[in-house]
Structure prediction request, 391 residues.
Amino acid sequence: MNHELTMNYEVNHRDIRESVARLCADFPGEYWRRCDRERAYPQAFVSALTEAGFLGALIPEAYGGSGLPLSAAAAILEEIHRAGCNAAACHAQMYTMGTLLRHGSEAQKQKYLPGIAAGRLRLQAFGVTEPDSGADTTSLRTTARREGDCYRVNGQKIWTSRAEYSDQMLLLCRTTPLKAVGKKTDGLSVLLVDLRGAGEKNLSVRPLRTMMNHSTTEVFFDDLAVPVENLVGEEGRGFHYILSGMNAERILIAAECIGDAKWFIEKSAAYANRRSVFNRPIGRNQGVQFPIARAYADMRAAELMVHEAARLYDRGGRPGEEANLAKLLAADASWAAAEVCMETHGGFGFAEEYDIERKYREARLYRTAPIPTNLILSYIAEHVLGMPRSY
Ligand SMILES: Cc1cc2nc3c(=O)[nH]c(=O)nc-3n(C[C@H](O)[C@H](O)[C@H](O)COP(=O)(O)OP(=O)(O)OC[C@H]3O[C@@H](n4cnc5c(N)ncnc54)[C@H](O)[C@@H]3O)c2cc1C
Prediction:
């Protein structure tokens, strides 16, 4: 792949990329295959990233982090995926922390952010989705009822990733009943829930086995007491706080997709050169090389959009359009590259030791989560092109 072409942007952070690549070299395919086989949390990898300070990249220096721009965090996540590793075990800490940073009180920031930056405290879990509310977030049913100096939380979350490996969870729940609010987006609040000791208090976490190793769970709240001081921002404004973090989340996930796409394309081109069938490399056939070239073109176009979204974000803008386009295009590009990689490898793409089938399973997620492709198209149709809301 032409590295000069892909390295020629202000958002590139070459030094950071090189350090991430060095760190990832200690976590080869065998490490990820073992975690995948045992459905184990990649603790050693997450610890190495934490110790190197990468997970505190976006936390301001005043709270012990590196105070880097979003483009640097995107570069970190992209390189992790480009190296064949997977940041899903810890990426949420980068963007869930943003809700606290933008909307938390000074006391909350002082209490949590230095610990997160130093790796003493994990804020990896983000509880929004419920069994009956995925894309339709505002219909969620988990409630928090004020009782003296605490909230009583009741309900259930699903797909709460990393809840077993996180000390705190950012929870979106309803504090004012739906029928008592004018708009569905009102009456929701964000609480910081201490997950430590789950099982011994009115909180239980049940792992959900999925097609890839993702440490995702169901979380049940049975009258759990959460101190009022754990409310982030104002009561009833939670949906707006979560929305304000979406652009960063979209851009970071898109960067991971670009890293995946690069990994698939590099593997494909190398194998197409190496594998000889009918006494010549398969890459000499246009039927093999054109799909790889097309995947590269799609990836590069998506990469430009990711860089543009990050650039606008780092300038203080709210690039809803670009962040959504970046996520859409990058998830499509990585999935197309995954398909091409499987195809290029023939039967060997299915062999575990090539890592392709694992990465293939992992790459599919981003067309569905954290937001499905259809919902991004709805956003573009409504908010960019001015068509009626379709739901
Ligand atoms: C492995 C994994 C990890 C996850 N981690 C987290 C997490 O940590 N925290 C969290 O809160 N959530 C998490 N999620 C949840 C994820 O964000 C949701 O799965 C996603 O938002 C979609 O919700 P849903 O699955 O309920 O799909 P639904 O909302 O039921 O939608 C089903 C399908 O219908 C389509 N659809 C729905 N409405 C429309 C419409 N109006 N127009 C067109 N198409 C429509 C969708 O695009 C989708 O394809 C995770 C999910 C997975 C699979």
Q: What stands out?
A: The longest helix spans residues 246-274. The first strand starts at residue 125 and ends at 127. Residues 125-236 form a domain with the Butyryl-CoA Dehydrogenase, subunit A; domain 2 fold (CATH 2.40.110.10). The pocket of flavin-adenine dinucleotide is lined by residues 126-129, 134-136, 159-161, 210, 214, 216, 365, 368-372, 374-375, 378, 390-391 (CB under 6 Å).
